[in-house]
TrEMBL record:
This is Putative MFS family arabinose efflux permease. It comes from the Bacteria. It is found in: Cell membrane. The keyword Membrane applies.
Length: 401
């Protein structure tokens, strides 16, 4: 093989990695989309803000179930075919949501979104091992998972920005079109990726060792890994209890107009990207103090919003805090030695937490007030910081963190 052939093959591998990263960005952005559009959708479809929050709860719960279910039922299918099918499903779901005539149809579309999220994220997370040489697996995995982190903080501002000019249905159409474009890119960029019965039962993959056996991963579900899963539930549920209803809070409590809300959420997204990369560099050495700091920033901002106002400043602080949560928890999972089972449980815990947080927040919004839900987010962030801080002794004793 000539040097030109080697260079071409390397470029093809990295194109596949980046296409999968755009895929994780697309599925998570689709999941987050209703947050910035909540009041517009609820007004159009004739439901309360709290009921509209089920658009976040439903896909979160479905994603948490679909990840392990698809990992089992689709394990013999070519991963390329599976990812293409899940991206096609996401395109259908987003377009169905865009043209939903009523709330039940919208909720059904969001259920389909959840299936795509859980399956795509679960399969994509481990593809670095099969797409690049062993020495580059860490970098490839970081790029793929960066799509999740960036989407978590940029997805809402992007949807809100589109909605401010062309309406919420156009935001859903845009995500549907992006999913269709990505479907074509994945079809062109991904090589065949044989399923379990053909790949794992044969010889080890050419670019790295085989995945650890489930029994071994299960045996390591203890200590630091359990702490990370608990922290995931606490901090993510608290965040989404408050953040799902940030637009109605800004409009009804802070008396902000549509243009202000769009700018505020855009600044939140920019701050989130900064927080993501800053926390990633810091947490690579020791994720525990990073998570304590991030939780403190979230607690400060969500508590200050109903007390002091200053929505632009507080949303920037909030974005800096939550923007680093995903990458910090992922690095902690890796340092805890959780393996594939740890990653699968993390995906499930993350999505369940989104669903529980947005659902609980909706009940608080409808039953108490919009300000009260901010206090719930602050309280759970404080608890997260405390749990993370108290885990120091146990983590140090096991030499993991």
């Amino acid at each position: 093989m000539t040097m030109t052939d080697v260079s071409t093959a390397a470029r093809a591998r990295w194109l596949a990695v980046f296409s999968v990263a755009v895929g994780t960005f697309t599925v998570v952005t689709s999941e987050m989309l209703p947050v910035g559009l909540l009041t517009s959708i609820s007004a159009t479809l004739g439901v309360s803000d709290g009921t509209a929050g089920l658009m976040m709860s439903a896909p979160g719960l479905v994603a948490a179930v679909s990840a392990p279910v698809l990992a089992i039922t689709a394990r013999r299918l070519d991963r390329r075919v599976t990812l293409l099918g899940l991206m096609a499903l996401l395109a259908v779901a987003n377009l169905a949501g865009a043209f939903a005539p009523n709330y039940p149809v919208m909720l059904a579309a969001r259920v389909l979104t959840g299936v795509s999220i859980g399956g795509f994220w679960a399969f994509a997370a481990g593809l670095g091992l099969r797409l690049v040489p062993e020495r580059s697996v860490g970098r490839a995995t970081s790029i793929i998972l960066a799509g999740v982190s960036v989407a978590s903080v940029l997805g809402v501002p992007a949807g809100t920005f589109i909605s401010s000019f062309a309406g919420w249905r156009t935001a859903f159409v845009s995500m549907g079109v992006l999913a269709l474009a990505l479907l074509a890119l994945l079809a062109a960029a991904l090589p065949p990726l044989p399923g379990e019965s053909r790949a794992e039962a044969a010889e080890p993959a050419p670019h790295g060792p085989p995945s650890p056996a489930p029994k071994r991963s299960l045996s390591r579900l203890s200590g630091p890994l359990k702490v990370v899963l608990v922290l995931t539930v606490l901090i993510v549920a608290g965040h989404f209890a408050a953040y799902t209803y940030v637009r109605p809070f800004l409009e009804q409590v802070s008396h902000a107009g549509p243009a202000f809300v769009s700018v505020a959420l855009l600044l939140y997204g920019v701050a989130g990207v900064v927080g993501n990369f800053a926390a990633g560099a810091w947490a690579a050495r020791n994720p525990r103090p990073v998570l304590v700091t991030l939780a403190a920033l979230i607690a400060l901002s969500t508590a200050a919003l109903p007390l002091a106002g200053l929505p632009l400043i507080m949303l920037v602080v909030w974005g800096l805090g939550y923007g680093g949560v995903g990458v910090t928890l992922q690095l902690w999972i890796m340092r805890s030695g959780g393996g594939e089972m740890g990653t699968a449980l993390f995906v499930g815990a993350f999505n369940v937490s989104i669903a529980l947080g947005s659902f609980a927040g909706g009940r608080i919004v409808d039953g108490v007030s919009l300000s009260a839900v901010m206090w719930v987010g602050a309280t759970l962030a404080v608890v997260s910081a405390a749990v993370s801080g108290m885990s120091r002794t146990a983590a140090s004793s096991e030499g993991r963190v």
